[in-house]
Every structure is written in C-alpha cells, then in structure tokens.
C-alpha cells in the first residue's frame, strides 16, 4: 500500500480517467477529478475545468488544494479526437486536438509542479496512446499530440528529477470502453488479430499501471513510456 496522497486526474468523468480515479480511491488516496461535464466515481471530488484554459486549470487546482491539500500526484488524461484523413483534416481539427491533448497537459503539469517543487515530491503521469509512437491513419493530429507527451515527460524529468519528482507516460492500446463497443464486430475482430494478447484491455488494467507509477515503489522510474497494449506497439 502506498502512502496516501492527494491525487488529481483530469478528464476523470468517464472511460480510462474514471477507472484511474476509482483505483486511486480503492487504494486509499484523496482523489479529485476534473471534468467539463459529469462527475468522477464515488469518493472523489469533482471540479469543473477546461484544460484549454490556463485560468480554469488554476482555479481547479486552487479548489482541490483547499479541499484536499497540495496535489502530489497528477494524471493528465483529458483528451479529444477529431479523426479524419490528413487530406481532409482542417487546421482547426489539428490545432484543437493539440491544444487539448498536448498543451492541456502542459498547463496541468506546469500548475502541479509549483506545489511539487515546494514539497520536493511529485508524481506526474501522462496518458498517451499506442498510436503516439505506432502511428494511425486518420489520426495525424491525435498521434502527434500523444507522441508529444513523451518529449514533455522526458524534458520535465530532466528539469525536475533532482527534486523528488517523476514524470512518466502510460500508453494504452485498445481498451474496452463505450467507444470500442460501438465498433462493428468485424472491425473489432480485425483489431484483435493484430494484438498479440488477442483481446482488448479493461480500463482497470490501465489504472493499475498508473497507480503503480504514482506509488512509493516507482520513485526511481522517470521519463519512461509504459505500454499497456497487449503487445500491439511494445512502446514503439
């Protein structure tokens, strides 16, 4: 069992973010989630925030700090997709995904680092994707945003590593969520054929990896990309 920490998960109202928040609650941490709408799991504090707006992020942190204390663990999970082939992709399709998924993570990490530097302790986990390094047709915007998180984590590691702060990336593959459930059977079977494990992951499997990286046992791991993808991308 890790030391109880104050944890903030962005985009914690559904899917992987919801599962991550649930896992931290189950492990006895003080957990807050940000959401644009909806709520996090039972036992969490939900604060409204939009990661594309630095003032909104700052206000959310202030609210969490007042209620639960300084944020010691931050999980940057909030993300959007605007999938389409590059030839059809508008500039707004590209920049809006970068602004949420990559610049949004920067805003969150920058704000979190203030308290972490003061405490000389911090765990930063960025939720990327197998397509960040593996690539995916129709997702140049999303893929670029998700690979950008790797450079972010590694540079943060070099800046803050001596202060007891780690920054790592978790790269999920195909996860059983509402989105994958809506895919046609044939398409699901085709995807599974390329995954050595032969199945999709449960959101809980991603959450366990995030919680471990955030815990006492992972203090000497930083700048790493941890794939949770059944062997699909293997970190590349």
TrEMBL record:
What SUPFAM superfamilies does this protein map onto? NAD(P)-binding Rossmann-fold domains
Q: InterPro entries this protein is in?
A: KR_dom (IPR057326), NAD(P)-bd_dom_sf (IPR036291), SDR (IPR050259), SDR_fam (IPR002347)
Ranges for domain Ketoreductase: 5-178
A Pfam family matched in the record: adh_short_C2
Keywords in alphabetical order:
Oxidoreductase
A single GO molecular function term of this UniProt record: oxidoreductase activity
Task: Give the matching CDD domains.
Answer: BKR_SDR_c (cd05333)
Q: Which Gene3D superfamilies does the record associate with it?
A: NAD(P)-binding Rossmann-like Domain
Q: Which family does it belong to?
A: Belongs to the short-chain dehydrogenases/reductases (SDR) family.
Q: What name appears for this protein in its UniProt entry?
A: Beta-ketoacyl-ACP reductase
Please report the organism this UniProt entry assigns to the protein. Cryobacterium tepidiphilum
């Amino acid at each position: 069992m890790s030391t109880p920490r104050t944890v903030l998960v962005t985009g914690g109202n559904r899917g992987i973010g919801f599962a991550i928040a649930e896992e931290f609650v189950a492990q006895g941490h003080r957990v807050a989630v940000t959401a644009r709408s909806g709520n996090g799991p039972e036992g969490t504090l939900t604060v409204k925030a939009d990661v594309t707006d630095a003032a909104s992020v700052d206000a959310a942190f202030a609210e969490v700090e007042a209620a639960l204390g300084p944020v010691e663990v931050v999980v940057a999970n909030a993300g959007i997709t605007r999938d389409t082939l590059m030839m059809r992709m508008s500039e707004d399709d590209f920049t809006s995904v970068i602004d949420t998924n990559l610049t949004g993570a920067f805003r969150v990490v920058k704000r979190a680092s203030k308290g972490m530097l003061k405490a000389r302790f911090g765990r930063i986990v960025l939720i990327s994707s197998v397509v960040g390094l593996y690539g995916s047709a129709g997702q140049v915007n999303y893929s670029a945003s998700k690979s950008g998180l790797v450079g972010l984590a590694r540079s943060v590691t070099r800046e803050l590593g001596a202060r007891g702060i780690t920054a790592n990336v978790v790269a999920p593959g195909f996860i059983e969520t509402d989105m994958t459930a809506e895919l046609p059977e044939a398409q699901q079977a085709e995807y599974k054929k390329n995954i050595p494990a032969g199945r999709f992951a449960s959101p809980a499997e991603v959450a366990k990896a995030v919680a471990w990286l955030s815990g006492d046992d992972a203090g000497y791991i930083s700048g790493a990309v941890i794939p949770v993808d059944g062997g699909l991308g293997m970190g590349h």
